[in-house]
Amino acid sequence: MTLRNRCGRVVFDLVLLSRPLMWLVPLVPFSVGYLMAFRQPKSGVTTPSAVLHFSRAVSYLGVGLVVWGPLICLAVLAINDVYDVEGDSRNARRGDAPVAHGRFSTGSAFVIAHVAAGLAVATAASVRPTFAVVTLLFLILGWLYSVPPVRLKVRPGFDVLINATGDGGLALLAGWSSVRSIAGFPWTIFALACIAAAGLYLPTTVADYESDVTAGYTTIAVLVGRQAAYRIGVGFWVVAGIGGLGLAVTETVLPREALWVLAFSTPSLIWLYCRCFGKTFDQGVLLRGMGIMGVASFVPLLIIALMYAGVL
Q1: Rounded to an integer, what distance in angstroms lies between the CA atom of residue 24 and that of residue 35?
Q2: Three-state DSSP class for 39?
């Protein structure tokens, strides 16, 4: 293999290590938080950040997307792969995992994770110090999830909590903090984002059930069973949907105009969740369902965020 081909393979494996499809998990709530930060509902007053020169605002968004897409995913997923070799080698959906299949050593992946984490925090600091702090908090949660002796991934309940907080609430807060102070952040939305993220995380434990059992990992699905884990996920998803409707009805954080969006999307997304995750425990079907749910959930989120920002 020529040097050029080797370099190309290394770059390709770095991309695989960061799992590009996973970038959407934090990027969706990050983008919503970014849009929400520009204007409070019904205030009619644009924040100072909203009147920044257009090119500056776009550049900040671009930096934020790089930080909360490839950089943090590379950091937390690489460190996860370092300590997940046994599970990944038995998991059909990780057949291309660079660490589990020997293309990167665990030592190399460990260094890559820390370099990516450092770049993420330093890049976030170039936008706003608070943005860097939120990014660091997310990375700490990623380390606690994967790295022994804490390794919350195999501590049922904590595995759900840490993913819900990171991929839900902190991702939303990161988008907001990249634009303005967190002093005015609507914390009710933080809670709902965590609940919704918990609902979307639980099917991943169901999808990985077989490989986790074989590897001896005690996740929430392994502890309570796949059917119970699915039902808990439905519960979280329903609570998040009803909570959003309640905020719109009372005009708490969400504008009243969002009610018509939620009135249609909430029952539709609950039905789709049950359709995607409740019919079978086949890993391939569950993974396709996660993609469908991600796209379907983004549409009403985007509309509501634009309403919140005063664009619609």
Answers
A1: 16
A2: strand
Query: Whose CA is closest to 307, among 249, 250, 264, 248?
Result: 248
261 contact partners, CB below 8 Å, separation of at least 6: 300, 303, 304, 307
Helix (H/G/I), strand (E/B), else coil: 46: strand
* pLDDT tier for residue 254 given thresholds of 50, 70 and 90: confident
In percent, the amount of the chain with pLDDT more than 90 equals 48
Residue ranges of domains in the chain: 14-308
pLDDT one-digit tens code per residue, 150-186: 999 989 999 999 999 999 999 999 999 998 888 889 8
Tokens (6 digits) for 172: 């939303």
State the architecture of 14-308 in CATH terms: Orthogonal Bundle (1.10)
Phi-psi region of 91 (alpha: psi -120 to 50; beta: other; left: phi over 0): beta
Q: Give 47's Cβ-side CA count (13 Å radius).
A: 22
